[in-house]
Amino acid sequence: MHYSDKSGKAVLDAQLCQKVKEESGTDIDRCYQCLTCSLGCPSAFAMDYLPHQIVRMVQLGLRQPVLSSATIWVCADCQTCATRCPNEVDLVKLMDVLREISLREGLVKERNVADFHRIFLGNIKQWGRQYELSLILMLKLKTRDLFSDLGMGIKMLQKGKLKLLPARFKGAEGVRAIFRRINI
Amino acid sequence: MTPASKTDLKYAYYPGCSLEATAMEYDWSVRAVCSHLGIELEELPGWNCCGASSGHSTSHWLATMLAGRNLALAEKIGMDIVVACPACYIRLRSAGHEIRHDASMRDELAGVTGLPCPAEYTTRHLLDIVCNELGMENLKQRIVKPLKGLRLVAYYGCYLVRPPELVAFDDPENPQCMDLLLDVLGAEVKDWSGKVDCCGGSLSLSKREIASRMVSELAEMARRAGAEAIVAACPLCHANLEMRQSGSSEGKLPVFYFTELIGLALGISQARSWLKKHLVSPFGLLASHGL
After folding, report:
1. Interface contact B77, partner A, CB < 8 A
2. Using one digit for the tens of pLDDT, what is the confidence trace for B197-241?
């Protein structure tokens, strides 16, 4: 069931909370808004909604603003909130599920982070292990940000810290078999 | 399963992708130090990337399968896995937990990889092995060059200690094992409040400004505590702390891997060649203490 605004556009999705609870396996109804998560969050300064607000918004079914928030992408997965929550709400699993849905529905706000993930997984699909030089170069091209960190990149190449060729090992085919089962 | 006795420390070593490239000095120091301390490492044959944060941010199923394939490979050779990268560590622990408790996921993994995975073996971090299996007494006896006068802070970051239901080998808010280890190596260990604060490593390439702010706060806290260098146990923290500290390269705090410092204290001759790979040179600092 969707609740609509005056123009008839759905703004509340009553199923969102249930769906997120099922997919994440964490009971966000237990949240009593104590703000422990937000107070300890190291990337809160870069968020548009604080973690406790995201939980409340999911409970209310505010689908669009949650799934197109910057918060779910600038969360650094540090696990501090989930570790400290007095009600054992696993906000990291919650963020994971929101990111998955946001990707599926094309609502991603922070394109750079999503591009990073896509390129990262594309490399694993192809080679089975991460190929860091390609990851950096492809991200630079995709985000059209060619010159930042250039000096650092050159220094890393000089020190031999970036391998010029991807790893070759038996087992890459086993990884490709995993990716064949999923549309990524 | 744990080894039959504490003198029998033998593990399947999972280096992870970073240790093959940007953190090659971590890999070299891990192998040399373990060999020196009698911790036998056999590289896990055919290992693949654990998927890292990109895996679980994109698909839970994919994250479990990518990490799970490595667990299945370790089952095949009947060994516990030892990992040096905490990001790999948490992914393998998380997949192991799930496979152990969810029969359908276990069957799924066997179906996709063709490898049965009863998840009888476990994954441990090398810091846990050194502190809790080898033990400090054992380590102490082999030190030939104490790191006297070197003022350090131990930086644990996120995944060595969080979430505690997956990784609990030390306290999630105020862990001690690396502090004790550095103390045994002879260094002057400073207490500080940044030891489990996140450095923003997962955003270092995609949201540089966020990572820079988090790293600068950590470096400032370390300085205020009186430290001359930070000690890490993670290739992503290490790279991020070196790359994203503000200021000129002379003004930055050097960052060591804990294994590099063990190597120096054990008098391993190659130790100085590992440090040449650092972006922030620690040689001036070491020389100032006669090391």
Report:
1. no
2. 999 999 998 899 999 999 999 999 999 999 999 999 999 999 999
How far is Cα B102 from Cα B93, in angstroms, rounded to an integer?
14
Chain A residues whose beta carbon lies within 8 Å of the beta carbon of residue B201? 76
pTM of this structure: 0.94
Q: Which of A35, A31, A34, A17 is nearest to A97 (CA)?
A: A17
Closest Cα in chain B to A103: B58
Give B234 to chain A, closest Cα distance, Å: 13
CB contact under 8 A, A169 and B55: no
CATH of B10-126, one of 2.60.120.380, 1.20.1050.140, 3.30.390.10, 3.30.300.30: 1.20.1050.140
Give residue limits of the domains in chain A. 2-104, 111-180
**Could you tell me the residue ranges of all domains in chain B?**
10-126, 135-288
In chain A, what residues touch B214 (CB-CB under 8 Å)?
42-43, 76
* Residue B225 buriedness (CB in 10 A; 0-12 / 13-18 / 19+): middle
